[in-house]
Design brief:
By secondary structure, the chain is α+β, with helices and mostly antiparallel strands. About 20% of the residues lie in helices and about 20% in strands. The termini are far apart.
Length: about 90
Amino acid sequence: MAIPNRQLGVYGYIVIYKPTPDDERWIAEQDDEYRHLPAHYALMDEALDRVEYLRKKGIVARVAALVAESTDTAEEFEANRNVEEDDGDDGEG
């Protein structure tokens, strides 16, 4: 079965690492803000800096691109926030 051609764009860059050098699994940390995304950096240079830091500590790490489909909407991202935005109302008044 053929996969339909989709328009994809880079949303950010993920740092993935192995818990131990011999482990077959690659792990990405969970994003603090969005429950459906792994932790990510907006710029590749930021992710590469983190990978370099981890490698200096002896951790096998690399960068992976986080892609979004052209049909993904801002509303979908906002609906999956872990933390509600502060509306400035502290409930007192």
